[in-house]
């Protein structure tokens, strides 16, 4: 995993999270998030809880928020389907903000055909749930992550930052 920590896309998202004061992260692994997860795991100011399913992360992040933390959930978009009920009946109903950093698989350039259906549906699911979504370029990522957290806090809602294959490849060294 040499060089992962210097991955520009991961650094931009990490700086955005730090700037927003994110201090609690639940995560489900994804190859695109590996560099970011390494940075979070190494940061003593961020409590990191790896989870086995996305809806578990939603619940744990809600509890962390009620305990005064600024939570983020890191996951792949295939897990959005797993977390719909928790996002609607917990975060949506009780106005609990949550920053979701989502590796958006299944779009242009996807090599795994099984990722494509959820890749197409992800923006529509977020729209149907009235969850604001952001899809920054590498140059916009740090600022966008901060804005997404501000929007989550202001509206008492989850927000999603969708990071597609192009985003992750834009910082290739």
Protein architecture, described:
α1 packs parallel to α6. The chain has one domain (4-169): Thiamin diphosphate (ThDP)-binding fold, Pyr/PP domains (Rossmann fold), CATH 3.40.50.970. The protein has seven helices and six strands. It has a six-stranded parallel sheet with strand order 2-1-3-4-6-5, with helices on both faces. The two termini are 14 Å apart. It is globular. 47% of the residues lie in helices and 17% in strands. The chain is α/β, with parallel strands linked by helices.
Regions with little confidence, pLDDT below 50 for 5+ residues? 1-5
Assign the CATH topology.
Rossmann fold
State the strand order across the main sheet. Answer: 2-1-3-4-6-5
Order of helices and strands: HEHEHEHEHEHEH
Beta-strand content bin: 15-25%
Largest sheet geometry: 6 strands, parallel
User: Which percent bin holds the helix content?
Assistant: 40-55%
Helix/strand-derived category reads: alpha/beta
What value does the Rg take, in angstroms? 15 Å
CA distance, first residue to last residue: 14 Å
What's the number of structural domains? 1
Query: What do we call the CATH homologous superfamily?
Result: Thiamin diphosphate (ThDP)-binding fold, Pyr/PP domains
CATH architecture: 3-Layer(aba) Sandwich
Task: Using the alpha-carbon principal axes, give the shape.
Answer: globular
- Count of helical stretches: 7
Protein name: sulfopyruvate decarboxylase
GO molecular function: sulfopyruvate decarboxylase activity; thiamine pyrophosphate binding
Catalytic activity: 3-sulfopyruvate + H(+) = sulfoacetaldehyde + CO2
Keywords: Coenzyme M biosynthesis, Decarboxylase, Lyase, Pyruvate
């Amino acid at each position: 995993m040499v060089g992962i920590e210097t991955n520009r896309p991961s650094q931009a998202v990490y700086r955005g999270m730090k700037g927003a004061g994110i201090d609690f992260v639940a995560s489900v692994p994804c190859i695109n998030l590996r560099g970011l997860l390494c940075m979070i795991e190494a940061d003593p100011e961020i409590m990191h809880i790896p989870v086995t399913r996305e809806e578990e992360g939603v619940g744990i992040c809600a509890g962390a928020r009620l305990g005064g933390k600024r939570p983020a959930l890191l996951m792949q978009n295939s897990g959005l389907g797993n977390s719909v009920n928790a996002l609607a009946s917990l975060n949506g109903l009780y106005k609990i903000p949550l920053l979701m950093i989502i590796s958006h698989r299944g779009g242009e350039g996807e090599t795994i055909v099984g990722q494509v259906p959820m890749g197409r549906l992800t923006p529509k699911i977020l729209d149907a749930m009235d969850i604001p979504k952001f899809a920054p370029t590498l140059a916009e990522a740090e600022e966008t992550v901060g804005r997404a957290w501000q929007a989550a806090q202001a509206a008492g809602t989850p927000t999603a930052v969708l990071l597609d294959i192009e985003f992750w490849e834009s910082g290739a060294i």
